[in-house]
């Protein structure tokens, strides 16, 4: 947790830093503060933060921004920005190539150049609050910019602009065009035909806009519908989303799917944004069309049997931020050959989560190791350093002799009680007819009875004596209550 102020380069190249939580009391973070923190994986800003960089500020619309803040944090996977943030600076996430998703708050008004350059982001939603986003690849104003806030994002496929103002949105789209972003170019989505028409009025952009700018939103629905259980659902882009809270949804199924599964961070239904934070029970069970699964940082729970039986999945990637993996969640994913890495954020792995899987699992801590073992996984478990956990040989069993009893007396009030020997084994007595019996064990004595409930874990010698019909009567046993199991 940061103090109330943070100087320039305060953690520069500090490779021991893995996570940062920034409280709302922080008002100033100087440039390069976390640059090249190569082990940094998670950053969370407390809501209410309104940070700026007063020393090396890029100013837009009177807003100071934090420049180069997380530049070259190559292992950064999870970022939560505050809901009061006004600006995202130039190069703020430059070359954070493991950052696959980021949610831009609706408070943001300005995004600087190359803000997301070199990240692994595959879909980005630009809220309507953004009125300025810089792109300045060339001094020639007639050329299509190839450097903008989204420049060189190799995985980027969809950029969604939620702005409705025709002039400002058209300008932002042009200044951050998809030219040069991806080998196949990304699709840019705008809310109105008028915005696309405005872009096409500029002949330098016309051919490009006609091919790559589309009207609509791949993650938007006009309203909710009902399923057979009367849940509010929305069917968007091949997936089914179930409303789970005022601002949250879970992915609960699919209508059309194939290849690698990537789940968007948020959807828009009836003009309201909902965060996607869960994969529901059985959502993709027995789906043979999936070849890969990425569970992103904003997904907090993978439900019971969510991917059970998806036998054609070859790779499962789980990002920092996921907290719970449900029972049978990835069971019978027999096609997975690559290692599955469990991030440190996972605090619960339920029974059977990886049942019948043949892959190896790398855990982040000892607690997770026990979770995985308790879940029934029988494959190879790898420790945080990449070493295989070795199974310890069971110690050679030693003969343990229980307490020697010449006589065990059972009164009428003691029926149903037990006697313990030194080894901790229990001999349970229960009256059955006119005979007394021991708890169900591997006895073979003539007074043994079937069907007697027992907590025995030991194998005792034969019980001698015929009956114990009443108070004060005794069952005589051997003097050597030998334990076969200890």
Topology:
Blueprint: E1 5-6, E2 19-22, E3 28-29, E4 42-45, E5 57-60, E6 63-66, E7 78-80, E8 87-88, E9 110-111, E10 123-126, E11 132-133, E12 158-161, H1 166-175, E13 187-190, H2 193-200, H3 203-212, E14 213-215, E15 220-221, E16 225-226, E17 232-236, E18 239-243, E19 248-254, E20 259-261, E21 266-269, E22 272-279, E23 290-295, E24 301-302, E25 315-318, E26 324-325, E27 340-341, E28 348-349, E29 361-362, H4 366-374, E30 381-382, E31 400-401, E32 408-409, E33 418-420, E34 426-432, E35 435-438, E36 474-475, E37 482-483
Parallel strand pairs: 1-3, 2-4, 4-7, 8-9, 9-11, 10-12, 12-13, 13-14, 15-21, 19-22, 20-23, 22-24, 23-25, 24-26, 26-28, 27-29, 29-30
Antiparallel strand pairs: 5-6, 16-17, 17-18, 18-19, 21-22, 31-37, 32-36, 33-34, 34-35
Helix pairs in contact: 1-2
Describe the fold and architecture.
Helix content is 8%, strand content 26%. With 486 residues, it is mainly β. It is globular and about 65 Å long. The longest helix is centred in the middle third of the chain and has 10 residues, at 166-175. Strands 15, 16, 17, 18, 19, 21, 22, 24, 26 and 28 form a ten-stranded mixed β-sheet that branches.
């Amino acid at each position: 947790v940061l103090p109330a102020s943070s100087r320039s380069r305060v953690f520069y190249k500090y490779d021991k830093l893995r996570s940062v939580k920034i409280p709302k009391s922080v008002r100033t973070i100087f440039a390069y503060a976390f640059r090249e923190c190569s082990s940094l994986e998670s950053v969370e800003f407390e809501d209410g933060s309104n940070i700026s960089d007063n020393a090396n500020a890029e100013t837009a619309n009177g807003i100071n921004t934090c420049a180069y803040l997380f530049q070259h944090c190559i292992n950064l996977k999870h970022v939560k920005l505050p809901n009061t943030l006004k600006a995202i600076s130039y190069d703020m996430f430059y070359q954070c190539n493991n950052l696959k998703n980021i949610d831009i708050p609706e408070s943001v008004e300005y995004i600087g150049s190359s803000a997301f350059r070199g990240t692994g982001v595959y879909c980005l939603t630009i809220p309507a609050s953004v009125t300025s986003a810089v792109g300045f690849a060339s001094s020639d104003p007639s050329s299509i910019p190839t450097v903008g806030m989204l420049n060189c994002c190799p995985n980027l496929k969809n950029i969604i602009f939620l702005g409705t103002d025709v002039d400002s949105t058209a300008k932002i789209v042009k200044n951050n065009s998809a030219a040069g972003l991806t080998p196949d170019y990304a699709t840019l989505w705008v809310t109105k035909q008028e915005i696309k028409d405005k872009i096409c009025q500029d002949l330098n952009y016309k051919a490009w806009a006609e091919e790559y700018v589309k009207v609509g939103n791949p993650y938007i629905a006009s309203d909710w519908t009902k399923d057979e259980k009367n849940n509010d659902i929305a069917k968007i882009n091949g997936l089914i989303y179930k409303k789970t809270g005022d601002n949250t949804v879970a992915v609960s199924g699919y209508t059309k799917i194939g290849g690698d599964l990537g789940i968007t961070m948020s959807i828009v239904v009836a003009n309201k944004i909902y965060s996607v934070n869960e994969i529901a029970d059985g959502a993709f069970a027995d789906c043979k069309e999936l070849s890969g699964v990425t569970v992103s940082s904003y997904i907090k729970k993978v439900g019971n049997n969510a991917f059970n039986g998806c036998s054609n999945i070859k790779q499962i990637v789980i990002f920092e931020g996921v907290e719970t993996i449900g029972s049978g969640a990835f069971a019978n994913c027999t096609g997975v050959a690559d290692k599955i890495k469990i991030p440190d954020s996972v605090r619960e792995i339920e029974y059977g989560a990886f049942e019948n899987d043949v892959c190896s699992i790398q855990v982040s801590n000892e607690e997770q190791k026990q979770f995985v073992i308790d879940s029934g996984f029988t494959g190879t478990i790898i420790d945080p350093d990449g070493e295989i956990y070795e199974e310890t040989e069971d110690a050679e069993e030693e003969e343990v002799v229980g307490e020697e009893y010449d006589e065990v007396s059972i009164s009428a009030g003691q029926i149903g009680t037990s006697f313990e020997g030194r080894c901790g084994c229990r001999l349970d007595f229960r009256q059955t007819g006119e005979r007394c019996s021991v708890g169900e064990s591997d006895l073979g004595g003539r007074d043994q009875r079937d069907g007697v409930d027992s907590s025995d874990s030991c194998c005792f010698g034969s019980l001698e004596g015929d009956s114990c019909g009443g108070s004060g009567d005794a069952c005589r046993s051997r003097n050597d209550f030998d334990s076969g199991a200890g």
